[in-house]
Design brief:
Blueprint (H helix, E strand, L loop, with lengths): L4 H12 L9 E5 L1 H4 L8 E7 L10 E5 L2 E9 H14 L8 H11 L2 E4 L1 H8 L4 H28 L3 H21 L11 H8 L2 H12 L7 H17 L12 E5 L3 E6 L2 E6 L3 E5 L1 H8 L7 H9 L7 H9 L3 E5 L3 E2 L24 E2 L2 E2 L7 E3 L4 H30 L3 H22 L23 H11 L6 H21 L12 H20 L9 H6 L5 H4 L1
Parallel strand pairs: 2-4
Antiparallel strand pairs: 1-2, 1-5, 3-4, 6-10, 7-8, 8-9, 9-14, 10-11, 12-13
Helix pairs in contact: 3-4, 6-7, 6-10, 7-10, 14-15, 14-17, 14-18, 15-17, 16-17
């Protein structure tokens, strides 16, 4: 070790002097210095073990003693026994063992006792070092399989550079498994070079560093394929099983909690009832082509048949965002992960910047290959979309009422119905930008500062219309013309220019109901607030009016 026994005992005495008195501690040095690694920047890690019944803090204390950073951790015998037994219980399914648990146990089992040797040996006897070596080797092997299978999938999908990175990760994990079986169980990879030197197999060491240093040309699928194949071959030589360059062993599978909802031509994918992804036209076509349970190469071929160019990266995006998963035949879900890194799981991208967020035909997207995360919780997204459709229905109803009032020269009725149309159009504008709940109608014009600056002209026109009076047929005709122009501007801004003239005919009314029904299905699935109570009847009738559904 880089510190002598005398230096360690002196550091320990000075460290204990800074802690509260009253407990007799057994003490072991753990970590890189205890392993025979370390350098002048390394922490001196002391683990204090007490025969106590209470749970001791898991957070360490950091002291600065004689130019050294000294980390003090405390554990009771019971806490350590629970950790060691948890490792033994989890050994049958090593993929479920947590990295932190294994790290804590490894540091204890390979520590250098300083005081209370008998107590430390009593605790260590609960999990013999030889048994722990096998568990660590199995844990690393499980992770290596996941990474190399993931690399195989990425290579199939045309993501060659990312495949090379995951092949490197899988190779490191394979070598760590091989080394753990030979007693080198220290978890952090940063000391791998010293571990391989101590393992005594120069052929393994040299071949690993040769592959690690290889740098396939970026964007060269052939070079990437050769590198991944070489990594898989070397992993097999080191005894790793369950990996091969056969992507047909990978199948595309459903992810629990992921559902698909289509409104018009827009495909929305909801993840975990919380997040909504809007797919561009190309991404939506690839998504609709998916037949779950099929081998990955066949899924890729089917996606190519849609006419979408290079569908592999789109499938990779679905995988990355947790909208689909891959399974290895006989080996379960592929879940790649790296040590001392972010935990495995789906990536959540930055929210979409498309404005406005919604139209009556679906969420806005940033491009045909987009897999955009909507910057609203799923229930608010659905509620805002339903409010958008309902606002447009109210606009059409108010315009119909205004037409009738003007024909009968009911000037005060005309004024009120025009205001109702303007306010409904503004409600639609706010809803299209994801505002929910909405401001009260009298505040709508004044709250337009919540929306992008491009909506300011709408605010000015709406404000003028809300103050308009009607005293003659000429006034009424002018109001009607300006109201229609304002509504057209609002609808163009929020992507509702093709909204049906709901009350013009039976066909346009059915088109309106279908639009509403598409969004109501999503809202009901998410338990979102419905715009009106009668909407439940439309749901119950599967999109038909209740008396027609009987």
């Amino acid at each position: 070790m880089i510190l002598t026994e005398e230096q360690l005992q002196d550091l320990l005495d000075k460290s204990l002097a800074e802690l509260p008195h009253g407990t007799e501690w057994a003490v072991t040095l753990e970590g890189s210095i205890a392993e025979g690694f370390g350098n002048p920047s390394s922490d001196v890690d002391f683990l204090l073990v007490g025969r106590r019944d209470d749970d001791l803090p898991t957070m360490p204390s950091l002291l600065f003693v004689d130019g050294h950073r000294v980390e003090i951790r405390t554990r009771s015998v019971r806490q350590l026994a629970d950790q060691l037994r948890a490792v033994e219980r989890g050994a049958r399914r090593p993929g479920r063992l947590s990295e932190d648990l294994l790290n804590r146990c490894q540091r204890l089992l390979h520590g250098h006792p300083l005081r209370g040797h008998a107590l430390l040996e009593e605790v260590r006897a609960l999990l013999p070092v030889e048994r722990f070596r096998r568990i660590m080797a199995d844990w690393w092997a499980h992770r290596a399989r996941q990474s190399l299978r993931h690399a195989t999938a990425l290579l199939c999908l045309g993501e060659s550079d990312e495949a090379v990175d995951w092949a490197r990760a899988g190779l490191l994990q394979t070598v760590k498994s091989w080394a753990a079986d030979r007693g080198e169980t220290y978890l952090e990879p940063k000391w791998l070079s010293l571990q391989l030197d101590r393992a005594g197999r120069t052929d393994v060491r040299d071949r690993y560093w040769e592959l690690e240093a290889a740098d396939p040309a970026a964007g060269d699928p052939g070079a990437a394929r050769d590198h991944v194949t070489a990594c898989l071959a070397f992993a097999g030589e080191l005894g790793l099983t369950g990996v091969s360059r056969r992507p047909e062993r990978l199948t595309v599978e459903r992810v629990a909690g992921v559902t698909t909802w289509q409104t018009g031509e827009r495909v929305h994918v909801i993840r975990g009832r919380r997040e909504v992804f809007a797919l561009g036209d190309d991404a939506g076509a690839v998504w609709r082509s998916l037949v779950l349970g099929r081998p990955l190469p066949r899924v890729l071929e089917t996606a190519a048949d849609t006419g979408v160019a290079d569908p592999g990266p789109l499938l990779a995006a679905f995988l990355r965002h947790g909208l689909i998963r891959l399974a290895w035949k006989g080996g379960g879900t592929v879940t790649p992960s790296l040590p001392l890194a972010a935990p495995p799981g789906p990536v959540t991208p930055p929210p979409s910047t498309a404005q406005p967020l919604l139209s009556v035909r679906g969420a806005a997207v940033t491009g045909p290959r987009a897999v955009d995360l909507i910057p609203l919780p799923a229930d608010r997204f659905a509620a805002a979309a339903m409010a958008l459709v309902w606002a447009n229905v109210v606009v059409e109803n108010a315009v119909e009422d205004l037409t009738g009032a003007l024909r009968r020269e009911q000037w005060r009725v005309a004024e009120l119905t025009a205001r109702r149309a303007v306010q409904a159009a503004l409600r639609g504008l706010f809803s299209a930008h994801g505002v929910h709940p909405l401001p009260a109608d009298p505040d709508l014009v004044r709250r337009l500062d919540l929306l992008p600056p491009a909506t300011r002209p709408i605010g000015r026109r709406a404000g003028e219309l809300l103050r308009r009076t009607v005293d003659s047929a000429a006034d009424g005709e002018a109001l009607f013309t300006e109201l229609r122009a304002c509504i057209a501007l609002v609808r163009t801004t929020m992507g509702a220019g093709s909204f049906p003239l709901s009350f013009e005919s039976a066909d346009t009314w059915r088109a309106t109901l279908q639009l509403g029904y598409d969004w109501l299905r999503i809202g009901a699935h998410l338990d979102a607030e419905l715009p009106i109570e009668e909407a439940r009847d439309l749901l119950a009738g599967n999109g038909a009016e209740p008396h027609r559904a009987l």
